[in-house]
């Protein structure tokens, strides 16, 4: 136990809460940790709560009673989310991103941990109230987004592999049709990676017709698990609705046009921002 | 501009600094942001600095002068690092992790974002002073560790792929011999992923003889880039030094024995903790 002044306690409490999102912390933990009365801790938390709310950083939920405590729920205001996404859109529209075949280079953006964490903050805001057990993605480019989301939701991440790896133990494999090429691929998930009946948030970097997401949903059925939500950073607006293999998802950015000849890209904020 | 009381300013400043590690922030930024005198901000920062140091969370560097400001350098004390690693060792020694072929299942541990972030904190502590431009890893399991490290060092992450992907543009491929199987594999890195002469921190989840790391170093040579450090979560202690393809690396955990018959695993803290 250490005695701290209010000013030091505020710094300590702030970092403690930020490091433990979606975790219920009993007030006695703090009272013992700082050698302070619970009433003082409550006053500290009221100050932090006000700043977090004012800054649009999220909510500090206080639960009364014996099983009570405080829980930090990170949230990004829609205004800040839109700022982040406008920044991403601006980057995506930079010339020189179009690759042969009309593909879009975005590994530089996905290689910025700070930006990826901001994207995770937005997904955590969108899916924070959905009673989720685990975040799932398929290798490779969705992985950092899934971890950023999982970190903010205090949830584990499960990784679907393309091949069955010796380091994963017994696994379930399924075939799926990837909408972009109409070709058949395999994805596998380790038997021990997921409990039966888990509620799963699927996250990925890009979705066109939705074949990969559809594959992950089929895989979930093998585990008697269910989809609690689907979030993709970028979706393609050029897909006909009858071509779409999956409808109920949230996108943060929509790719409207790729003009390979003039090397221009048109993007707009995704369906999350549609009213 | 908003006027804040000291107590609210401390909360705000703490979260602002924690969200921007290894970033120089001029005092005028805060003075303007909070409508406070620079002298008040300096007093606030002194309080935060003391708490951060007391908690073993890192350092608040103050740089005087016109180009001056404050920079938060996250650091984990060796004591806390060892606590984290003992926790990891305990988990790795749990029965039931040994897979056919003597492989160790650790995807459940690597699937915990909170733990992965703690591992990133340790790598950021080890390599924080090394003048690094970029963190590099090869898919798949090292990716979350690389991002956790990059986030804390405020550095981009570059991802080496096993295959050449259409979404990466022109790429450089090399062949390498994986020490575990003595078999030949390919790894590729997008031409535009890395600037010439970058100083690179290589991070991975596991290293046996070091073939994969050796491959990444060979790949760096193609970009006229150089290795600034190599960090792996787990290395294998059962490799002869003449078999080892690479010596100068830091490990956090060392796998000493895998007894596939009795299904037991022996691990100890890695070479970072050796005096």
Automatic annotation (TrEMBL), chains A, B:
Alphabetized InterPro entries for the sequence: PRTase-like, PRTase_dom, Pur/Pyrimidine_PRTase, PuR_N, PurR_Bsub, WH-like_DNA-bd_sf, WH_DNA-bd_sf
Phosphoribosyltransferase domain ranges (all copies): 109-241
Source species, domain of life: Bacteria
Tagged with keyword DNA-binding: yes
Any coiled-coil regions, as ranges: none
Keyword entries, A-Z: DNA-binding, Transcription, Transcription regulation
Database matches in NCBIfam families: purR_Bsub
Name assigned to this protein: Pur operon repressor
Species of origin: Saccharibacillus brassicae
Lineage: Bacteria, Bacillati, Bacillota, Bacilli, Bacillales
């Amino acid at each position: 136990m250490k005695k701290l002044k209010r000013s030091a306690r505020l710094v300590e409490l702030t970092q403690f809460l930020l490091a433990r999102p979606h975790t219920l912390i009993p007030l006695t933990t703090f009272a013992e940790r700082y050698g302070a009365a619970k009433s003082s801790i409550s006053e500290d938390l009221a100050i932090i709560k006000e700043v977090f709310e004012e800054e649009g950083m999220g909510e500090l939920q206080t639960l009364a009673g014996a099983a009570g405590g405080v829980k930090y729920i990170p949230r990004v205001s829609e205004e800040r989310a839109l700022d982040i996404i406008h920044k991403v859109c601006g980057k995506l529209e930079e010339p020189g991103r179009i690759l042969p075949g009309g593909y879009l280079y975005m590994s530089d953006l996905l290689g910025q941990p700070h930006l990826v964490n901001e994207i995770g903050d937005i997904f955590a805001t969108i899916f924070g109230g959905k009673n989720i057990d685990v975040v799932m993605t398929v290798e490779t480019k969705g992985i950092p987004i899934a971890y950023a989301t999982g970190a903010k939701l205090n949830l584990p991440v499960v990784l679907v592999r393309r091949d069955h790896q010796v380091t994963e133990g017994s696994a379930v494999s399924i075939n799926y049709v990837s909408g972009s090429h109409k070709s058949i691929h395999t994805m596998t998930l380790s038997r021990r990676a997921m409990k039966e009946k888990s509620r799963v948030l699927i996250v990925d970097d890009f979705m066109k017709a939705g074949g990969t997401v559809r594959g992950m949903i089929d895989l979930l059925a093998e585990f008697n698990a269910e989809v609690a939500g689907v979030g993709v950073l970028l979706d393609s607006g050029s897909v006909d609705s009858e071509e779409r293999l999956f409808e109920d998802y949230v996108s943060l950015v929509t790719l409207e046009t790729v003009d390979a000849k003039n090397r221009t890209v048109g993007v707009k904020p995704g369906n999350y921002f549609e009213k």
